[in-house]
Every structure is written in C-alpha cells, then in structure tokens.
C-alpha cells in the first residue's frame, strides 16, 4: 500500500474511533470521511462499507474491556456475586461509551470479528450462569440468551437518560437482578429465545441503525 493510502487508512481509523466514542456506531460514513479529510468513496475503497469499518476498529477497542470484566468476575468467589458483577461491568461499558453500548447490544452482519467476539462473551457468561445456578442462587430457567434482555434494556435506558441521569440504568439493573434470584422466582410465561432468535433480533437493531444513518 502506498504511503498516502496508508495515511488515509490511519486517518479513517482515528476518525472512526473518535466519532464512535462520541455518537455510537450510527455515525454516517460521510461524517467519518469528513473528519478524516477524505472522500466517502475512500472509505468504501479501503474498508468496503459501514460494517467493515466497524469491524476494523471496534474489536480491538472492545476485547480488552470485556476480558477485564470476565477476569474480575471469575475471580469473585461467590457464584451469585460473580454473575452479578459480570453483568454490571458489561452494563457499565454500555453506560460509559456509546460505541461499546452499540457493540454489545447489536449485531452487524458483515462485522465478522466483532460478532465472533461478542458471541464469545456470551459463552463466558454461560459459565458464570451455570455456576450461580449450581449454587442455587440464580433461577434455574435463566439462559445465556436471556442476557440479551439485560443488555437491550440497559442500552435503551442509557440512550433515554443521556444528559439527564447517567446512573439511572443502575436502578433498572438492580431491579432486574433481584428478579433473577432463585428465592423470588416464579414460572415464566414463555420459553427463552433461542440463540438464532437473539442473533436475528440484534441484527435487526443494527439494521435500524443503518437505515437511520442513510437518511
């Protein structure tokens, strides 16, 4: 790659990171190109489109944060506390960074690396869930797919309360976690979503984001 082309790639990556941190992954390609001082066509030429650009920058930003959350949770000796800590730390990522909020609560079909990382995060949650259930602390019918409900609700609350009350999501999460304790469990009215259903729903959320930015 020529030096000027490499500089364009580096400028686009930096512009994308800054824009995503400020506004989330809905930022139009045209805005990122403007910040980088290049044409929108350069983004398509170098990355191939919105999802590909997201995939070029977001996995590296997300991986270390998720690994740290998993490490802290797995070091917690109490099974319920470990599960609750992991959920809380993921929600903190959502609350503190619009880009991470979108990354963990949505799916972008052509962002393959990011999808793999987020799917692996759900796998990590599975072990914490099973440990808490084996201890009798977490209701036995909670599934790893149900984690999506916690992430979706936090995502919506964070967006709705931005600039109003940055801690409102903590109250919602505390209410949800109390409802997940086995001692307060009642039979659920419908089965859990399947893994493909969760994936389709998250892709739908990402598609809504794409339609908004294309207007």
UniProtKB/TrEMBL annotation:
Q: Which Pfam families match?
A: TetR_C_43, TetR_N
Domain called HTH tetR-type: residue spans: 6-65
For this protein, the parts annotated as crossing the membrane are none
Is Transcription regulation a UniProt keyword of this protein?
Answer: yes
Give the keywords, sorted: DNA-binding, Transcription, Transcription regulation
Annotated PROSITE patterns: HTH_TETR_2
According to the entry, DNA is bound by residues in 28-47
Q: What is this protein called?
A: TetR/AcrR family transcriptional regulator
| Organism field | Paractinoplanes aksuensis
């Amino acid at each position: 790659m020529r030096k000027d082309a490499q500089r364009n790639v580096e400028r686009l990556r930096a512009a994308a990171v800054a824009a995503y941190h400020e506004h989330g992954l809905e930022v139009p390609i045209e805005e990122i190109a403007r910040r980088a001082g290049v044409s929108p066509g350069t983004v398509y030429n170098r990355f191939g489109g919105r999802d590909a650009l997201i995939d070029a920058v977001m996995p590296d930003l997300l991986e270390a944060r998720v690994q740290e959350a998993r490490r802290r949770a797995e070091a917690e000796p109490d099974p319920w506390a470990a599960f609750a800590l992991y959920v809380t730390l993921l929600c903190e990522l959502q609350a503190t960074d619009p880009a991470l909020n979108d990354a963990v609560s949505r799916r972008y079909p052509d962002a393959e690396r990011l999808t793999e990382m987020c799917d692996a995060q759900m796998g990590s949650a599975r072990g914490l869930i099973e440990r808490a259930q084996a201890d009798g602390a977490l209701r036995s019918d909670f599934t790893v797919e149900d984690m999506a409900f916690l992430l979706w609700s936090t995502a919506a609350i964070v967006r709705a309360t931005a600039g109003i009350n940055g801690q409102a999501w903590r109250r919602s999460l505390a209410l949800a976690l109390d409802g997940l304790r086995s001692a307060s469990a009642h039979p659920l009215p419908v089965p859990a979503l399947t893994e493909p259903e969760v994936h389709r729903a998250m892709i739908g959320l990402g598609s809504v984001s794409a339609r908004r930015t294309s207007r």
